[in-house]
Amino acid sequence: MESQPQNSGAGATSPSPSPSHLAQKLRRNLEFPSKWGELNGAMGDLGTYIPIILALTLSQNLDLGTTLIFTGLYNFLTGALYGVPMPVQPMKSIAAVAISNPSFAIPEVMAAGILTSAALLLLGATGLMHLAYNLIPLAVVRGIQLAQGLSFAITAVKYIKSEQNFAKSKSAGDRPWLGLDGLILALACASFILLINGSGDQTETETETNQIDGIEIEIDRPNRRRSRKFLKFIASIPSAFLIFLLGLILAIARGPQAINHFKFGPSKISVIKISKHSWKEGFIKGTIPQLPLSILNSVIAVCKLSTDLFPEKDVSATSVSITVGLMNLTGCWFGAMPCCHGAGGLAGQYKFGGRSGGCVALLGAAKLVLGLALGGSLVKVLVQFPVGVLGVLLLFAGIELAMCARDMSTKSEALVMLVCTAVSLVGSSAALGFLCGMVVHLLLRVRRAGEVKSCSEFWFDRNV
To answer: Alpha helices of 43-197 — where are they, by DSSP H?
Structure first.
C-alpha cells in the first residue's frame, strides 16, 4: 500500500508554544508572497461558491447575509490556522437535496449540516480519520479527485453553454452568442485566462549553452532576458480577479435597479428552530449522502492535495476533520449554510496564484464586509452576475483538480483510479466509487500475492 505523508497524522505531543511563537506562526500563515497572486487566487473558488449559495437563496430563502458573515469568519480562521489557501465551500450533497426538494427546507438543511459535522468532529477527535487517511490507497484518493474535477468541469461547460435557472437547478436553453452574458464573452474570458496563466506551470525561458574546454557555460542573451521579463510580467496579471471584476461591472449594468434595493446593515441573526421531524429528514436525506463525500473529498483528498502542493505545511486529516466539525456546529444554529473544505477549491485557488493563508483570509474579510454592510440585499446583484463567467472560473478549477491524477505511474494504479472515477461520475456517488475502487485495489493485491507465491513455489521445486 502506498505510503502516506508523515505530517497527516494525529501529531505527537509537544510542549505548548509560547504566545510569541503563535504570533510568528500567524504572521507567516497570513503573509502575502505576492499581493496580486493572493488576490487573484481568492477568486479561484467563487465558481463553486456563488452558484450554490445563490441557488439556495432563491429556492429555499437561505439567509445570504448570515452565510457571508460566518463563511467569512471560516475563511479567515482556516487561513490563519493552516497557512495554505484552504477553501470554504458549501456541502454539495446537502445543497443538491435542498435545491431539488422544496420540502427539504432550511431547518432540515441545518440539521443535516450539524449531524454531518458532529460525525466529522467525532472521527477527528478519536483519531479514526487519521487511520482512514493512512489506510486508503493513493490511487483511490486520486480517483475521487479526478471524479470531482471532471464533475466541476462538466458543470462549468453547462454554465458556459446554457442559461441557468438556479432557483430550480435547471438549464434554461442555449446561451446566446451576443450580450452581457453571451457565449462570446465566456469564450473571451477563457482565452484570456489561458493566455495569462497557461497550463499553470512556472515556465522559464531556456538559456543557450556553449562549451569551453569541455565545460558548459550558460549564455544569457539579451533577447532571452527580455523574454523572461515579459513572461514574468504576464504571469503577474491577476486574470481571475480582473474577470470577476468584469462580471461584477456587467452584473450592475444588467440590473442597475439592484443598487436601489440595497439595505445597509447586517441581516438579523436568530437561532434556527429544528423540530424532531427536521432532525430525522436532515439525517436521512442530507447527512447520509453528505458524510462519505465530506470524509473523502473535504478531508482526505484535501489533505493529500495540501501535502502535494505545500509539503512544508502541517495539514493533518485530524485537524481538518475537527475544524469542519467546529465550523458548522457554530454557524448552522444561526442559519449559515453548512460548509466544508474541498480539494476543488484548493486546486482552483492554487491555479490562480494562491500560495498562503492570506489568500483565503482576504476573501474572508471581503465576505465579512459585504455581509455586515449589505446583508441579504446583495442577492439582487448576484442574480445578474454573468453565469458564463462563473463557468469559466469553475472550469479551470475543475481541470486543475483533475490534473492531480497525472502522477499515477503504473497500470494497476491507473486501473483503480479510473474505476473509482467512472463509478463516482456515472453513479453520482463518491461513496460508491470509493467502495468499487477499494475492491479493485484489494483484488489486485490478492492477485499479486498469488503471483509471488506461485513464483516462489516454482523456484523451490526447481532447486529441490
So the answer is: 46-60, 64-82, 92-100, 106-125, 128-135, 138-161, 183-197
Whether the per-residue pLDDT at 10 is higher than 70: the answer is no
**Location of C-alpha cell 484535501:** 302
CA 27 to chain centre: 24
Are the C-beta atoms of residues 208 and 224 closer than 8 Å to each other? yes
The pLDDT tens digits of the residues spanning 198-228 come to 886 654 444 444 554 555 545 455 566 667 7
In the prediction, which pLDDT does 205 show? 41
Contact at 8 Å (CB) between 25 and 161? no
CB 341 within 8 A of CB 88: yes
The pTM score is 0.84
Higher pLDDT, 457 or 30: 30
Residues near 453 by beta carbon (within 8 Å), at least 6 away in sequence: none
Listed in sequence order, the residues at least 6 apart from 232 whose beta carbon sits closer than 8 Å to its beta carbon are none
List Cα–Cα distances, 52 to 35, 96, 339, in angstroms.
28, 9, 11
